[in-house]
Amino acid sequence: MDRIVVHRSGPLAGEVDVPGAKNSVLKLMVASLYAEGTHELTNVPAISDVDTMGSLLGALGVDVSHDLHRADVLLLTNRGDVKSIAPSELVETIRASINLLGPLLACKGHVRLDMPGGDDFGTRPIDMHIAGLTAMGAEFDLSHGNIEARADNLHGAHITLDFPSVGATENILTAAVHANGETIIENAAREPEVADLCDLLVEMGAQISGIGSSTLTIVGVERGSLKPVQHAVVPDRIQAATYLAATAVAGGDVIVRGARAHDMQVLLSRMNDMGLDITAVPGGVRIVSEGRMRAVDIQTLPYPGLATDYKPLLVTMLAVAEGSGIVTENLYPGRFRYVEELSKLGADIRTDGHHAIVRGVERLRGAAVVAPDIRAGAALVVAGLAAEGRTVISGIEHIDRGYDNLVGRLVALGAVVERVDMAVS
Ligand code: UD1
Q: Which of 234, 310, 343, 386 is the most buried (most CB within 10 A)?
């Protein structure tokens, strides 16, 4: 089993580019179900979730392959015979398999899949997905641990979400693409990845307005009228944040190429509040980190608030900042599991329900830790850059699900990090 071994590093210097977003590409891949022919996605990250989604789509009738000459290009060929029953072993691996619901209902009027897997942040209900699709005429059967839905004729509906759920917004809007009439989603999620999916669907021929706002209006178009297109995946703001956090704790002067300051505004201003010098530069974001950061209080919120996926990185930064910060998690109460691992490195963190108090320490110390999920795994790598001695991270298959060459990119900035096969070392 591979491990990532990190030594205290810094200052970091140079430039790093940001690949496309996991939370966008997986949904863009699913959009290939709408149109026969070959779809082309560019800026695709080399992550294992893309491979898993590729296999899942393969089983449903879309052949997915990498372009032989361009590593970031994915070709998806819909053979025109899409199936509506997803294989369990693949569905259980990734959360984004829930995103099959809307497109398969829209294109086939039927879908069956197991409850999807993904990161374990505690319970991840899908009641808003079901309520929205039911309002559009779908009928669900949730017996036997399956999700099965049928809809002979989906129709438009006026749906107000209780909470701007990313997944529920995406499933409702993708179902509405071929529904009869107009669907309005109020309190829709506004994440850049949701907007990226809307943009792709519009390029394919769907009618969606209000993209990027909290009210989306979708007017259904005929089945079979969408066309394959070429589309570049939006840059990954969470991977971008990871290189900013790495520079923040290790010190240095780094430009994160492809990072969109506009999509990361709240995070960047919080990092400025911590004493980091963050500026938008043409084509990216520059961070200069000198001296010790100051602690701030943070709370996670739906976009444009501070993303819950940034939180493990921010907690790691607070762990070595001067002073104490209160962290409030408003999306996933269970999302503090990695705190135990950071504590093994000497971080002083107390949790209580969905709050944590992080008291900054001057130095972390290396230890063996386990990555509990994608972002927390990356945060442990970042923490290792600020820890004396050697930090050995196992469970890195989680990191591989969402990070494209994290180790190589950090090494290029001057970090002392390596990926080691423990069986042969
Ligand atoms: C997506 C992202 C994930 C990110 C999250 C929030 C993907 C593959 N994953 O997850 O990385 O952390 O957005 O930004 O894109 N909820 C309900 N009922 C529902 C749906 C959601 O109660 O029907 C709750 C969830 O439990 C959670 C909150 O709403 O507390 C946000 O969930 P949601 O925005 O749907 O997240 P995901 O789409 O699962």
A: 386
Ligand 1 centre from 292 Cα, in Å?
A: 34
Give the pLDDT confidence score for residue 265 in this predicted structure: 97
Ligand 1 atom at minimum distance from 124 CA: 26
Question: Which residue's CA is the nearest one to ligand 1's atom 28?
Answer: 331
Per-residue pLDDT at 121 = 53
> Which residues of the chain register pLDDT less than 70?
117-123, 424-425
> Is the CB of 23 inside a 6 Å radius of any atom of ligand 1?
yes
pLDDT, residue 122, reads 58
CA of 88 to the centre of ligand 1 (A): 21
Indicate whether residue 347 lines ligand 1 (CB < 6 A). no
Q: Indicate the residue among 232, 249, 275 that finishes a domain.
A: 232
Identify whether residues 221 and 253 lie together within a single domain: no
Q: For this structure, is 253 an active site residue?
A: no
- Ligand 1 atom having least distance to the Cα of 374: 11
Task: Please indicate, yes or no, whether residues 66 and 175 belong to a single structural domain of this protein.
Answer: yes
Asked whether residue 301 falls in the same domain as residue 265, the answer is: yes
Tell me the pTM. Answer: 0.96
Atom of ligand 1 nearest to the CA of 128: 23
Instruction: With CA atoms as reference, report the closest residue to 91 among 47, 146, 128, 139.
Output: 146
CATH of residue 356:
3.65.10.10
Q: Do residues 63 and 202 share a domain?
A: yes
